[in-house]
Amino acid sequence: MQGNTSAEYDEFLKANRIKVNKYMNKVLWFFVLAGPAIALARKNGLFAEIKYSTCIIISVVLAILAAFHLCLCKKFPGKAVTFFFALTTLDAVLLYMSCHNVGIYICWFTVPLLSLLFCEKYLYFYASGLNYVLLLIS
């Protein structure tokens, strides 16, 4: 009985990884809109110290990373590399934004929060650890 439950749980985790990776890809594509949103806010006087080139770079880099993640989702749908890439990418983009005076500090909590969707504690610890290290660097 124990082996059957373990196999069912492993099957659940694999199906969950695939499903959450698809959602993570949608999140990455949605974040591509961050560049135009920040540019619009700059135009309205909110982020006066941010350059328009920074907004363009944010959108272009996120589009490239989202496209690469989509390829990973198709080639390795349930593998660890796919979700590690997505979470690391989100943290790296937050670091870039922070280093270029885009002060959206509330976003730092989203990466560990999103890692909880994978139902794997090692992934949560990785996401939280990386998040805090990059937060200290910024």
Per-chain topology:
Layout: H1 2-31, H2 34-43, H3 52-75, H4 80-99, H5 110-115, H6 121-137
Q: Rounded to an integer, what's the Rg over CA atoms?
A: 17 Å
Order of helices and strands: HHHHHH
Q: What average pLDDT do the residues reach?
A: 87
Q: Quick one: how many beta strands? A: 0
In the predicted model, the low-confidence regions spanning at least 5 consecutive residues are none
Helix % is: over 70%
**β-strand amount:** under 5%
Distance between the termini: 50 Å
Biggest sheet descriptor = none
Structural class: mainly alpha
Q: What is the number of helices?
A: 6
The shape, in one word, is elongated
Explain what this protein looks like in three dimensions:
This protein is mostly helical and 138 residues long. It has helices at 2-31, 34-43, 52-75, 80-99, 110-115, 121-137. Helix 1 packs antiparallel against helix 3, helix 1 runs parallel beside helix 4 and helix 4 packs parallel to helix 6 (121-137). The protein is elongated and about 60 Å long.
